[in-house]
């Protein structure tokens, strides 16, 4: 299949597909980061994670419309407000869901899975009732439009670069929050030994709620970033949920580095193959490879040996 | 062969008799053939639900990919029926007569190799059992031998459901794509679209379901059934009692897969088509809710749960399509938070005691009354305790 | 300390056994022998590697190096259920029983017959099984509770039930991890009596913290410290060992 292309063409194809893969990578990382916190740290299966992401996207959409209509002077920077709002909205909903649902089910992970699936159905229908079944898109400020020409053939869209920078910043932020801050330390303490953490004076209920809310909030930011490169519909979240879970499991559930590495591997594999095969076959092959590897190495790519 | 009485208690017989009466007498009298056919369609999902009772309720293995096996069974049947419907005479207007119409539309000029054997009904009937069993065996062996279980197993099976759906939709020349395999007409020359055929298929389906219930009850009442409960609870203890735990999990997963496939095949026969919308993530997880609503520990409950959820789905989505998704979502949450034992749990709390008393008042049907403490009295009722 | 031997006098010979978790050697070059019909107690401070030794013998943890021979058969290459079928039984630290099943069913599942899938499907609760279950239940003081759901037993009764589940397998080597933890004084006495009774015809390895209990039952004591053997011998000899005193009383 390579024979039809010259070397320079092939190089450009790989570069362009590689770049497209990087954007996919960014979305994967943003979604997987929230899930890595909720699933990897807390062991909770949140099947509604995609819907939290879509909430962030809709919040951004509303912000964009509101700013355009009432304070157009701020349109150039509305995106930053929107992102903060998306974080707050998704985080608040997350805290509510933790209080109403998740906290009763910490010992029953499979039941959490079913309950959050129910939640995702309800949220999807709510979005459909409020925003309609059609996909919506946001308008981007001028400075995010256009692209940077790299060579004659290769052009890099600015919004893509912005999303990647954003991903980088958030990934670093999450790393510091989990591994360098007091809150992160408490989270990890609660996860490793709930009783002991409670005994040394950590409010485990509060930590659970904050951690879950944080994971959902990051999903909200992911949704916000998502609007810059695609449109949003009520069921868009469900399209990504299986991929994202596979990414987190593939990376080794408790490892942030693993999550990022597996996002990278999966997104690049998929986007490179997409050029040569049909999109669906690329996805089938990627997912099959991941499932195959997971069957051989169930603990994922990065994992610690534990003394049982 | 084991004496039937050894695994079917009087309560079980009563349960079976009621289900049989509903399927064979009540529904055919109460419904026209259109509604009865719909009811028969629901009953095909009950095969999946009782498989999940074994696998998930008793064994603690949650598969979110049962649609895969339902689909495999359904597609095997559909491929046979499609080939029978695609005779060169019937497809004379195609550029390549004698192959299924969707292949012709996708510029395929010869029957693919894996379609060839489905010209034979014998092969097809065997394949309905063997293909899903083999597929489940491969998945189960790979996962359970490496001690992957619980949540990871659920996610992987879900991914497999997603992969298979994408594959079926993407390869439409070989599979009929998103529309599935449609326009099925005859089985060995017997037109399956007539009302008479629909009645016969409905009764065949009902009989198969009763057979499946008896088979599952036999498995559950054997030591294997108790082992499933044991390994859901303390897998290590079972292992250190000298059992190769993986083999038991593989067995029950394969059994659930085969049951699902039989349901799928009967679905194709009664409804007249098969499509990827019964394979993917969404239908697979809905099948779990059928089982959960019925009470994940009781095979009889699973049948009623399936019927109830599907009846609600049809009723609500016809009249208030928007409310249905809210309702289904709430059902998922309620069945987990409020009544984890489902219909069977409600029955046990409110109705069961009266029924038991009524049954024990009746003189035993022949033979002497059982002595006070038979070993059978030491049996726990795994369906009686709330799942934690 | 021990001379590496190849003789068949011992029921179990553990030689040069090492296991490391990410470089940390939980068990380090350990040699340990268990005689026929011996009650062999392993004591030592927390983290000494006692439970890990039991895990290694029963196959729950894979050894990094060394050998474990049971009746001259290498166990390190076998899987857990195969080790059980060789005649090694293992009780866990926390009572590990099937809470949803009755006492009878708990014991019945452990009855060594019908361990394959097909065997389990065709298993029959015949007179032999019922007699044996009743016999064992009487031994572990549970004969009046056969029909009770195991979740409803007291902590001590659960410990006994698990011991009973091992006894019904009739293992040649029985390994018990803290069998009296959480038991009342009278329950401890009963358990000591039980252990002395069940050693007839088999060997028992016990990991225990309760020194009074160890004195009551032990034929031989091994003291472990930081993955190695510190001292070995009779209880009196071990208690007099200055190294042991130092480890236990510390600085």
TrEMBL record, chain A:
<protein>
    <submittedName>
        <fullName>Urea ABC transporter permease subunit UrtB</fullName>
    </submittedName>
</protein>
<keyword id="KW-0472">Membrane</keyword>
<feature type="transmembrane region" description="Helical">
    <location>
        <begin position="245"/>
        <end position="266"/>
    </location>
</feature>
<keyword id="KW-0812">Transmembrane</keyword>
<feature type="transmembrane region" description="Helical">
    <location>
        <begin position="153"/>
        <end position="178"/>
    </location>
</feature>
<dbReference type="GO" id="GO:0022857">
    <property type="term" value="F:transmembrane transporter activity"/>
</dbReference>
<feature type="transmembrane region" description="Helical">
    <location>
        <begin position="77"/>
        <end position="101"/>
    </location>
</feature>
<dbReference type="InterPro" id="IPR017779">
    <property type="entry name" value="ABC_UrtB_bac"/>
</dbReference>
<dbReference type="InterPro" id="IPR001851">
    <property type="entry name" value="ABC_transp_permease"/>
</dbReference>
<comment type="similarity">
    <text>Belongs to the binding-protein-dependent transport system permease family. LivHM subfamily.</text>
</comment>
<keyword id="KW-0813">Transport</keyword>
<keyword id="KW-1133">Transmembrane helix</keyword>
<feature type="transmembrane region" description="Helical">
    <location>
        <begin position="275"/>
        <end position="296"/>
    </location>
</feature>
<dbReference type="GO" id="GO:0006865">
    <property type="term" value="P:amino acid transport"/>
</dbReference>
<dbReference type="Pfam" id="PF02653">
    <property type="entry name" value="BPD_transp_2"/>
</dbReference>
From TrEMBL, chain B:
<feature type="region of interest" description="Disordered">
    <location>
        <begin position="363"/>
        <end position="388"/>
    </location>
</feature>
<dbReference type="GO" id="GO:0015658">
    <property type="term" value="F:branched-chain amino acid transmembrane transporter activity"/>
</dbReference>
<feature type="transmembrane region" description="Helical">
    <location>
        <begin position="121"/>
        <end position="144"/>
    </location>
</feature>
<dbReference type="Pfam" id="PF02653">
    <property type="entry name" value="BPD_transp_2"/>
</dbReference>
<dbReference type="InterPro" id="IPR001851">
    <property type="entry name" value="ABC_transp_permease"/>
</dbReference>
<dbReference type="InterPro" id="IPR043428">
    <property type="entry name" value="LivM-like"/>
</dbReference>
<feature type="transmembrane region" description="Helical">
    <location>
        <begin position="241"/>
        <end position="267"/>
    </location>
</feature>
<dbReference type="InterPro" id="IPR017778">
    <property type="entry name" value="ABC_transptr_urea_perm_UrtC"/>
</dbReference>
<feature type="transmembrane region" description="Helical">
    <location>
        <begin position="200"/>
        <end position="220"/>
    </location>
</feature>
<feature type="transmembrane region" description="Helical">
    <location>
        <begin position="36"/>
        <end position="54"/>
    </location>
</feature>
<keyword id="KW-1133">Transmembrane helix</keyword>
<keyword id="KW-0472">Membrane</keyword>
<dbReference type="GO" id="GO:0005886">
    <property type="term" value="C:plasma membrane"/>
</dbReference>
<protein>
    <submittedName>
        <fullName>Urea ABC transporter permease subunit UrtC</fullName>
    </submittedName>
</protein>
<feature type="transmembrane region" description="Helical">
    <location>
        <begin position="323"/>
        <end position="347"/>
    </location>
</feature>
TrEMBL record, chain C:
<keyword id="KW-0547">Nucleotide-binding</keyword>
<feature type="domain" description="ABC transporter">
    <location>
        <begin position="12"/>
        <end position="251"/>
    </location>
</feature>
<dbReference type="InterPro" id="IPR017781">
    <property type="entry name" value="ABC_transptr_urea_ATP-bd_UrtD"/>
</dbReference>
<dbReference type="GO" id="GO:0005524">
    <property type="term" value="F:ATP binding"/>
</dbReference>
<dbReference type="GO" id="GO:0005886">
    <property type="term" value="C:plasma membrane"/>
</dbReference>
<dbReference type="GO" id="GO:0016887">
    <property type="term" value="F:ATP hydrolysis activity"/>
</dbReference>
<dbReference type="InterPro" id="IPR032823">
    <property type="entry name" value="BCA_ABC_TP_C"/>
</dbReference>
<protein>
    <submittedName>
        <fullName>Urea ABC transporter ATP-binding protein UrtD</fullName>
    </submittedName>
</protein>
<keyword id="KW-0067">ATP-binding</keyword>
<keyword id="KW-0813">Transport</keyword>
<dbReference type="InterPro" id="IPR003439">
    <property type="entry name" value="ABC_transporter-like_ATP-bd"/>
</dbReference>
<dbReference type="Pfam" id="PF00005">
    <property type="entry name" value="ABC_tran"/>
</dbReference>
<dbReference type="Pfam" id="PF12399">
    <property type="entry name" value="BCA_ABC_TP_C"/>
</dbReference>
<dbReference type="InterPro" id="IPR051120">
    <property type="entry name" value="ABC_AA/LPS_Transport"/>
</dbReference>
<dbReference type="InterPro" id="IPR027417">
    <property type="entry name" value="P-loop_NTPase"/>
</dbReference>
